[in-house]
Amino acid sequence: MLYKILFTIIILLATWTAVSYFFERGIEEPAYTVIEKRDGYEIRQYEPYIVAQVNLPDLPYREAVTKGFTILAAYIFGDNKTQQEFAMTAPVFIEESTELAMTAPVFIESQTMSFVMPSQYTRNTLPIPNDDRVTITEIPGRTVAVLTFSWWRTENRIAEKEGTLRRYLERDGEEIRKIEYAGYNAPFTAPWLNRNEILIEI
User: What is the pLDDT of residues 128-179, one digit of tens each?
Assistant: First the structure.
């Protein structure tokens, strides 16, 4: 009986892993080049890209993430002037206007969530959002320090990883500018396949 239970668990985990992998295979990401690997993180040079974004003031982190994702997902699934749908890309960026605290719960004054737009579009060819909270913005090429981590993406874990990357950059004498969290995976993705990143512009 125990062997049957273990076998069933293994099959379920394998199926979950396979579905997660095949669902997200081939999803487009912004183009970048890794220009240096350092102890604990890497330096990337991103090419310019375009995002749809929404600003979410005065909300707890989890509520802001849910609300922002709902608004932006509606836009790419047809809530726009031409009712056009287009492909989901990765990652979803969240930029905070204040530092994440190292305690719980985490409240931040304001955050901006961004969906990267498919590269075949320009700012002029993207459909106009019906929701005036959604804005289309061009992100110029930039250099960022990146710390990648897997498994769960709770607000406290994000804050912990941000603190780790800050310490690395202070150690290496880098000036810290804009800070973002990037999530690459759908909510149903097997946690061991999750790809999460803290990006700090330098």
Answer: 999 999 999 999 998 999 999 987 777 788 888 989 999 999 998 888 888 8
Give the position of tokens 């981590």: 149
Task: Provide the strand spans (E) within 2-60.
Answer: 32-38, 41-46, 49-57
At the topology level, CATH places domain 28-201 in Multidrug-efflux Transporter 1 Regulator Bmrr; Chain A (3.20.80)
**CB 75, CB 84: distance < 8 Å:** no
Tokens of 146: 């990146």
Beta pairing, strands 49-57 & 134-139: antiparallel
Tokens 């289309």 locate to: 136
The answer to whether the CB of 17 falls within 8 A of the CB of 193 is yes
**Each residue of 109-121: pLDDT tens digit?**
458 888 988 988 8
Q: Is the pTM of this model over 0.85?
A: no
